[in-house]
UniProtKB/TrEMBL annotation:
UniProt GO MF annotations: DNA binding; DNA-binding transcription factor activity
Keyword DNA-binding: yes
Keywords, comma-separated and alphabetical: Coiled coil, DNA-binding
Coiled-coil annotated spans: 105-135
Name of protein: MerR family transcriptional regulator
Amino acid sequence: MLSMTDPPEEAGEERTFTISELADTFQVTPRTIRFYEDQGLLSPRRDGLNRVYSHRDRARLTLICRGKRLGFSLAEIKDFLDLYDVDDRQIEQMRFVLAHGRERIASLEVQLVDVQQTLSELRALESQIVEHLKAAGAAPDKNTKK
């Protein structure tokens, strides 16, 4: 974070971020960011006891958060991030994401079918119970009348 006593940015000097700035931006806790650092996903430089995050760290945090949101494990995310420097065009990185993304799609499609079947069963059960209660002369819910 810049203060009034910091020297002005020189041409080409990279913008840096504090842990608090990143935590606020990505709506995670500083503890989460430190955890990602412990896992080797981020590697900020140090300025005394303070962590100083680069634009690259911010971009990596963007990918970490997106990967988590999409259901990828931290190990998968780390493997993906590590592939960034393998080649200039990130071909292996894209192949990795494509393969793992396809696996995730297949897994989610199975889960979707399971959820749909469960909902169907629950709705059928609900209908049976409501009909049974009505046949017994009872209201389906405590707070409603027949």
